[in-house]
Design brief:
two-stranded antiparallel sheet
Length: 129
């Protein structure tokens, strides 16, 4: 009985040590958000950060007013477009009623079987020819 407890305890210790060893080291300090105050708290530098200052690449900023670059716009991507279709479990071309419906299902629904040659065009023989 004592042997079983020792074996289990030893295994547990090895698992905990392995877990700690395999955890990624977080060397980049991210700002933390305080949900109650709804503000962002900046992290403070520690002596460890100062020791690793040579590992941080320099940042170059063009402060001149002669820059000709235009401001860039960030596109807003939707996970699913507004459409009349919805993923309802259908996976085959025989269950579709149009090329648009088949295309929607292959682009946004899991486990569809409508693009046999993997060219991005579903149901080529039935709907999208």
């Amino acid at each position: 009985m004592i042997n079983k407890v020792l074996v289990i305890l030893t295994c547990l210790i090895f698992v905990l040590i392995g877990y700690r060893v395999l955890q990624p080291k977080n060397t980049i300090h991210q700002p933390t958000t305080n949900a109650a105050a709804d503000n962002v708290t900046q992290p403070t530098l520690t002596s460890n950060d100062v020791d690793n200052i040579d590992d941080i690449p320099p940042t170059y900023v063009d402060l001149s007013n002669t820059s000709t670059s235009a401001p860039t716009a960030t596109p807003v991507l939707s996970t699913q477009p507004a459409s009349n279709f919805s993923c309802d479990g259908r996976t085959h071309c025989s269950q579709m009623t149009s090329c648009a419906e088949a295309t929607y299902f292959t682009n946004y629904c899991p486990n569809t079987k409508m693009d046999g040659n993997h060219d991005g065009v579903p149901c080529e023989q039935q709907w999208c020819n």
